[in-house]
Design brief:
The structure is a homodimer. The first copy, chain A, is of the alpha+beta class. The radius of gyration of chain A is 20 Å and the shape is globular. In chain A, α2 runs parallel beside α6. In chain A, strands 7-9-6-10-8-11-12 form a 7-stranded mixed sheet, with helices on both faces. Chain A has 2 domains: 133 residues, 60s Ribosomal Protein L30, Chain: A (2-Layer Sandwich); 165 residues, Phosphoribosyl-aminoimidazole Synthetase, Chain A, domain 2 (Alpha-Beta Complex). At the A-B interface, β1, β2, β3, β4 and β5 of A face β1, β2, β3, β4 and β5 of B. β2 of chain A pairs antiparallel with β1 of chain B.
Chain lengths: 329, 329
């Protein structure tokens, strides 16, 4: 396959045509964009071909969707409402234009559902592999949710099931491919449902805003490198420890076929979840439990440092802070 | 050379230690940073090893300096005063940590001089080649300077000499190396002075703010892909043409040894200048000329589309809009 060689101006035109109605004061096409005055939370996260995905198993729309989604969950973890983003694309010569167009279409579809628009970016050629870096802006609603404000006694919640993305990645590494990614109609069953989940994390936007706007969460983090390692980061920043109830962990039903040991491994140490992990003051416990969000209480923050997994029989097991490291994969 | 393998947490710590006193409300170390409320202009620009530089001829501090500088000139071209930036680094396994540390130190040195601080970013491994992407924020002073507000009759100015970076790149491609990059003491003469200029564009910050704050410039663009191609972009966005006085072009004295034809080629079509090209209403002509900025009037915007080079003997030559394309290098 060889590229049809869109030039830089043609890519800028293509991207501009996808996000015509940006509410930015100055959008794509100048030296910089200008955003409406506000207090912005800003996050940036990149996906790299050969590191985060392979074109051989990742449909381009799926990659575009995920590239934006990983940023959306970071912003939700701050309690910010997303509004604008920048796209940086470094495009290798041997990648067909159609793949890059698919990536942009995948971003476009998710951006419409989430009410955000692209207002700028940067284009470059790449010596090897597609690089997609997104910078996402959102307005802070109430006080930003930090990792560092958790207190001993807070209940710990996660906002979705755990383990499926790690199992999907395992399948991809073993030769599985997702044949198609339809932004509107996700696969309803079978292996494709599992593989699809890798690229399509559930939206955390409304939950993030709910937790920040009413001061319900004391602290929050996006689970992206693994439940235990991200919980460890939260605990370390807050100067506390955590006790997790093993029986409360929201194991994804898609892990049904796995052995209990493999299941637990995926749930505790798998990455790419893009769900929120947050602390809740006991006074707000019922408010969170009675909300319509698919949240699950998994334990509590405690004074004693370290993370302890409590089995139904009362056994305590200390968990090491291991998980996904971006230089160890 | 093999890396000493800093892990992700260690890089975050290293970067945090370099920008401790950020004025951001939330800085490095959470899921997103939070900026003080304002109307921000935002730009993003990436440098890639193998595309924009080679580690064989580019000292790491020079690369870090340039990675930030290309963003600073984009923001100056909007008339915005820079304040915060995000760093995305994609680090290949075979690159020594010391090179990456040098890149960060180079950024740090320039950031101190320009009064900006890093408040977040993203780290990843890279399959091939170092990728450095920066997103820079600045507050808009007065009305933002756009490419699209130029009018026929405006005087055209450039804010520095032209041609040296293109000649430096030519030298690098022919085997030249810059042995060292000292942020505080630039080389004063010889080939190293030329090579150094490639990485050390003059600061445009104060000029950009001056032009926007008092409504002096009607339009502006950062010259990064070549004088003619960027002038063409400015003209196209403003719906005008331009007449350039050949004798007024600010040829860099470092091009002295070149033939007149090569010199003109570098000045008109060389990229990487990172100086401003801007339009000035005749009413403000003297104000600009009498300012302390090293600006040069090179011609005027005219009604008739296209760019015309006017020789001292009155000959008119139409210039094609060619220059650096990021997919044609």
């Amino acid at each position: 396959m060889s590229r049809s060689f869109r030039d830089e101006a043609s890519w800028v035109k293509f991207i501009s045509s996808r996000w015509r109605n940006s509410r930015a004061d100055v959008s794509i096409g100048d030296d910089a964009c200008v955003l409406p005055a506000a207090s912005y939370a800003v996050t940036t996260d990149a996906l790299l071909e050969g590191v985060d995905f392979m074109t051989s198993w990742a449909p381009p729309r799926a990659v575009g969707c995920k590239a934006l989604a990983v940023n959306l969950s970071d912003l939700a973890a701050m309690g910010a409402s997303p509004s604008f983003f920048l796209i940086t694309l470094c495009i290798p010569e041997d990648l067909p234009d159609s793949y890059v167009e698919g990536v942009i279409e995948g971003m476009k579809e998710l951006s419409e559902r989430e009410g955000v628009s692209c207002c700028g970016g940067d284009l470059s050629s790449s010596r090897s592999g597609l690089v997609i870096s997104i910078t996402l802006f959102g307005e802070v609603v109430g006080e930003p949710l930090l990792r560092s404000d958790g207190r001993a006694g807070d209940y710990l919640f996660v906002s979705g099931t755990l383990g499926a993305p790690a199992e999907a990645l395992h399948s991809f590494m073993s030769g599985a491919k997702l044949p198609v990614f339809d932004s509107a109609i996700p696969p309803v069953s079978g292996e494709d449902k599992l593989l699809d989940r890798f690229f399509r994390p559930p939206s955390q936007r409304e939950l993030g805003v709910f937790l920040a706007e009413y001061g319900i969460a004391t602290c929050a983090i996006d689970v992206s490198d693994g439940f235990v390692v991200d919980l460890h980061r939260l605990c370390e920043a807050s100067g506390v420890g955590a006790e997790i109830e093993k029986a409360s962990l929201p194991v994804d039903p898609l892990l049904e076929g796995l052995s209990p040991a493999d299941r637990l491994k995926r749930v505790l140490y798998g990455g790419e979840e893009q769900v929120l992990l947050f602390g809740v003051d006991p006074a707000y416990l019922e408010r969170v439990r009675s909300s319509s969000f698919p949240v699950r209480c998994v334990g509590r923050l405690v004074k004693r440092p370290g993370i302890v997994l409590v089995s139904p029989d009362g056994r305590h097991e200390k968990l090491a802070a291991k998980g996904f490291d971006h230089f160890d994969c």
